[in-house]
Write a structure and sequence with these properties.
about 350 residues; Nucleotidyltransferase, domain 5; 2 domains; five-stranded mixed β-sheet; 10 helices; binds 5'-O-[(R)-(carboxyoxy)(hydroxy)phosphoryl]adenosine; binds zinc ion
């Protein structure tokens, strides 16, 4: 098989979305499909891990079939399979891993476990306007808030991270406190659009001291206390929370850009869908002559396309898992990845 004909099937199942992607060396992203479990977890106000695993089992094979059909690709045309091996929910990861390894074994093709956050980090490479290495990456999701010095694929140095809640988690918890619907992040962002800036002033945690780490749990507590005192002003509270969170992220990005000397910033992960964050970072980018890159809206949150791409870039260089063992890594640092 020549690299030119290489086609990678990607499987994402680390949390509450089943995602499938097909990436070809010749044509780029050929097809992708997503099944979101939002409705399943909505009545519980958060992801129920056991329900997530069970639903991945139901969805993954039909979704692979549908994606192949959509891309007009036969299963026998697939050169290799990439799947999310971690970090994430163990049961959910096991579903993708077991399906990927079994399929690869039966088709006699390689499989490779991909780091979910590397998937997010590389997602902007699926766009026409791509960042060039090196760059600074701000990864903002439900489980992580990371500032990463990216010199090449697989060469990651974590410059800063959250010491407590991830920023997406803080959005979700603050939304829950105010009785908003799950998933809280987008609901809070929508409510904030109706809020007036400046009515409430929230702190910008850890911005008044040196360093690149984050802390978002205090912001959530501040929101809870404000909401208890002013229960009728939800939109203004949502606005104050969003402004404080996005300003905090911007201040740390500006600092990290200064420190690294980089003129390119990649922003990815679920919270990179947030319009206020994009506006704040775009303004900072203009002021500091920094180019800012995002994935398209659909690829900010979890998806199979980013896993197909991240796996593909390694598989075409010959990286594969050594055996068909079903191995998952629910906890896994980006710094432990192999360079390509
Ligand atoms: O990357 P992702 O889909 O899953 C993880 O890897 O965690 O990120 C999900 C997170 C959730 O916390 C969700 O509330 C947040 O991203 N999110 C948003 C928005 N869209 C998704 N937060 C703020 N504003 C949004 N528009
Ligand atoms: Zn994610």
């Amino acid at each position: 098989m020549s690299v030119a004909d290489f086609i990678t099937l990607g499987i994402e199942s680390s949390c509450d979305e089943t995602g499938i992607g097909l990436y070809s060396q010749k044509d780029g992203l050929i097809a992708h499909q997503l099944f979101s479990q939002v409705k399943i977890h909505q009545e519980y106000g958060g992801v129920v891990p056991e329900l997530a695993s069970r639903d991945h089992i139901q969805r993954v094979l039909p979704l692979i079939k549908a994606t192949l059909k959509d891309g007009k690709i036969k299963l026998s045309d697939v050169s290799a399979i990439a799947y999310t091996a971690g970090p994430g929910l163990a049961g959910a990861l096991l579903v993708g891993s077991a399906v990927a390894q079994s399929l690869a074994w039966s088709l006699k093709i390689p499989a490779l476990g991909v780091h979910h956050m590397e998937g997010h980090l590389l997602a902007p490479l699926l766009e026409a306007r791509k960042p060039k290495f090196p760059f600074l990456a701000l990864l903002v999701s439900g489980g992580h808030t990371l500032l990463v010095d990216v010199t090449a694929i697989g060469q990651y140095k974590i410059l800063g991270e959250s010491l407590d809640d991830a920023v997406g988690e803080a959005f979700d918890k603050t939304a829950k406190i105010m009785g908003l619907e799950y998933p809280g992040g987008p609901a809070l962002a929508m409510l904030a659009q109706r809020g007036i800036e400046g009515i409430f002033e929230f702190p910008k945690p850890l911005t008044d001291r040196p360093g690149l780490d984050f802390s978002f749990s205090g912001l959530k507590t501040f929101a809870r206390n404000t909401f208890t005192q002013y229960p009728m002003q939800k939109a203004d509270i949502a606005k104050a929370f969003e402004v404080a969170a996005t300003q905090t992220l911007m201040i740390k990005c500006r600092r990290a850009l200064k420190q690294t000397g980089y003129k390119a910033l990649v922003v990815a992960g679920g919270v990179s869908a947030n319009e206020a964050l994009r506006n704040t970072l775009d303004t900072m980018g203009i002021k500091s002559s920094t180019e800012v890159f995002y994935p398209r809206q659909d690829f900010c949150t979890d998806n199979g396309a980013m896993i197909a791409l991240a796996g593909h870039l390694r598989l075409i260089k010959g990286q594969t898992s050594k055996s068909n063992k079903i191995i998952i890594k629910p906890r896994w640092s980006l710094e432990d990845l192999q360079a390509v």
